[in-house]
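Journal club prep — side note

Before the paper discussion, L.F. wants everyone to see what a predicted structure for a comparable chain looks like in token form. Sequence:
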Amino acid sequence: MATIVSLTAQRREQTGKGPARQARFLKKIPAVIYGHGRAAQPLIVDGPALEQALSGVDPESTLIELTVDGKKSRALIREIQRHPIRPDIIHVDFYEIHAHEQVTLKVPVHLVGTPDGVRNAGGVLDQVTREVEIEVLPEHIPDRVELDVTALTIGHSLHVRDLTIANATILTSAELTIATVVPPRAEEEIAPPPEAAVEPAEPELIRKVREEEGEEGEGEAAAAEGGTEKKAPEAKPKAEKVEKAEKPTKPEKPKGGKES
């Protein structure tokens, strides 16, 4: 059977971000209750009392006996909003239920036993699905659903169809895997990186100097074999300046009259 938690709430007259922020400053939690065609009714709940009531239980499968202005009603928690950074509750949605009406909710799946593949073959148990959705009367809401995995071997799985929930209809797909045993993960050996066999390249400047030294050595060896030393080529004489040719003189005119 589901856990029943008693909680007291008051009507909330003011709504909006400002009043909600002020309520949380006073350690009060804004809330709302709805269901059965009724309009949503704003409420306010004592924060520490709500935290204590939900401690150690699954909120989705817990029945809340809610007292508002002296009137008691039963409800389920449909949603809990928490602060994005801190674990503080900032808002709660309650859904009113009646004893003779079926409700739809999710219940947690708890695995029982140690699989054979884990005990005898070193396998690893992997739980794929942790809750299933059911339809049930409020008086038959289970606290959780248990599934025996003792006979599970490596490579085999259990599915939703293997669950048995009394007085409830399972809405989750029957083929959905709940748990499986996988082979042990082999540790991969990381090979050390191969040592570099190529010597580091010499700097360009050193290589150039060595090449020049090699050329000088070859020249000296050739001179020694020939018995003569290389002479520097003689400088070519500078071309002499060509004197300009004298201009031809004009023929002189004969004296004594005109030319015949």
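L.F.'s comment for the group: Residues 4-97 form a domain with the Ribosomal Protein L25; Chain P fold (CATH 2.40.240.10). Keep this in mind when we get to the figures.
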